[in-house]
Amino acid sequence: MQCNVWSDSQVRNFLITISYNGSKYHGWQIQSNALAVQEVFQKALENVIQKTPYELKGCSRTDSGVHANMYCISLKMEHNIPTYRLQTALNRFLPLDISVLNVEEKELDFHARYSCKSKEYVYKIWNSQVRNPFLEGLAYHYKYPIDVELLNRACKAYVGKHDFTSFCTIDSRKMEDMTRNVMNFKVERQGDMVLLTVEADGFLYNMVRIMVGTLIRIAQGKFSPDCIEGIIKAKNRAKAGPTAPACGLYLNRVNY
Fold it and tell me: Is residue 112 domain-resident?
């Protein structure tokens, strides 16, 4: 029961940190025609707090099929449940692919989205001739060679404050300021797993997946290693690489 009006000063504001496997969900935000993480979380919450009015805000929308190692939710409500009991009770009602990692109380003006200073995403590529059945839906299987050092040099062109129009899927959403500040981007190998990690003050729709798809084009020799600066300046989605599959993407950390 979402509510924006409070009767007195007994309102509490919780920061709830969850982790989830997004394979069967259409992102975080609740939808009328598909199952989203928010819908499942709210059902669990309502089982715990019954008819208590509440206000719930997520830190990000996330795409369909994307996972989260750390996803943050701010919850306002007038309820006297201790934080440790709220965590335990939520985990009792949540499915096995969603887990509450932590619950803490915050000041009333804290907001899971607007109080965020930066977010970090990790994209996982299983870089082996042989697929790993235990990573099905949890990493992108790419069997061709990846020169990690080459990509680690190329991705540095993403770092800085830029207009990332070329790295945004254009749909029916309202156009906004396309400028984002990318603070860090790195590519590293751990055995057959290649990890692409990016931190920024915000991300556009499909931005990380298009960044990864562009780097894969560089790995394939289809794009020049120094192409990224020109693609950014073009402000044209057609100039960038394809959108990498959602299965490899994880919201890894939210910084406040």
Answer: no
Domain span at 58: 12-106
pLDDT tens for 168-182 read 998 655 667 899 999
Number of domains in the chain: 2
Determine if the pTM surpasses 0.85. Answer: yes
d(CA 70, CA 87): 15
| 63 catalytic per annotation | yes
- Are 145 and 48 in contact by the 8 Å Cβ rule? The answer is no
How far is CA 249 from each of CA 48, 152, 157, 242, 252, rounded to the nearest angstrom? 31, 18, 21, 15, 9
Residue 68 pLDDT = 98
149, 255, 150, 242: which is closest to 201 by C-alpha? Answer: 255
Q: Are 148 and 218 in contact (CB under 8 A)?
A: no
Catalytic residue among 63, 147, 163, 177: 63
Q: The domain spanning residue 99 has which CATH number?
A: 3.30.70.580
Residues 166 and 241 grouped into a single domain: yes
pLDDT of residue 1: 57
